[in-house]
């Protein structure tokens, strides 16, 4: 027990000293970079002492600066550090047996994805560890490489449901060109999991008229595709899209009916108020709720319909109407 206690004390002391040393080193790196930026020092004269070039420390300092700075002076210094100290090591660490080193390599490439070798990004995207795959995926969303971009969507479709949100956040922030790639992928009739992702992404960005592409999936055999296609229609208010949504109000699936009501509400399709009214008596509570919310959102005529419900004639419609009218804006 005594030996074990001494070992624990030694390890605590060792890691505490190591942490202090690391913080001091990163402080020196930050000071050197800050001084170069403030003094507008010529990039050719910028250098780092050998004791300040440890891979992990450099990565963490550069990430901190990158979150705060976007000016050309900083980017020049960052790229010089990448070229001189980090990229040669990143290529080695990308194939390391240690997942933490592979993640550091991925984080290095994320500092300037255009400098990352396609081979390394492909390998890191297919890494066994999620924390490595995700960083590689984010890097890929920032470069012009269609095949790798499609590989990110494919990998997202293979992840567990909760893990997909991080991919989604990165994909939503892509530029307009990549959303055109998403539309083209959707036109190629991919597998349902891929199509669902594409439809979900298109629902988040107002683009040119992709209505013909989206509407085709409203009538798809896959239930998830249908739901996300209806959701995507919220960006396209037209007689055709509203007609499609109204038809969905009669669908056998309660989820389809509910989603169509949400979108009609978002589109402020006041002309279809009388089509929404019958769904206050829908057998599914959630559909009744969406119908009542839609009517309330569609203005005075919809609110009057809710107010006029009679308990003895339509008890369920009366109950949901009363509940929605009581909600605060």
Features:
329 residues, mainly alpha
Written description of the protein model:
The structure is a single chain. This protein has 18 helices and no strands. It is an all-alpha fold and 329 residues long. Helix 3 runs antiparallel to helix 4 and helix 9 (176-187) runs antiparallel to helix 10. The chain is elongated, with a radius of gyration of 28 Å.
Number of helices: 18
Global structural class? mainly alpha
What is the beta-strand fraction?
under 5%
From the spread of the alpha carbons, the general shape counts as elongated
Would you count the extended β strands for me? 0
Mind describing the biggest β-sheet?
none
Summarize model confidence as the mean pLDDT.
Answer: 87
Unreliable residue runs: none
The proportion of residues forming helix, as a percent range, comes to 55-70%
Q: What is the terminal separation in angstroms?
A: 65 Å
Order of helices and strands: HHHHHHHHHHHHHHHHHH
Alpha-carbon Rg, integer: 28 Å
Blueprint of the fold:
Layout: H1 2-38, H2 55-68, H3 72-93, H4 99-111, H5 118-125, H6 130-140, H7 146-158, H8 164-172, H9 176-187, H10 192-202, H11 211-218, H12 223-232, H13 239-248, H14 254-266, H15 273-276, H16 285-297, H17 300-307, H18 315-326
Helix pairs in contact: 1-2, 2-3, 2-4, 3-4, 4-6, 5-6, 5-7, 7-10, 9-10, 10-12, 11-12, 12-14, 13-14, 14-16, 16-17, 16-18
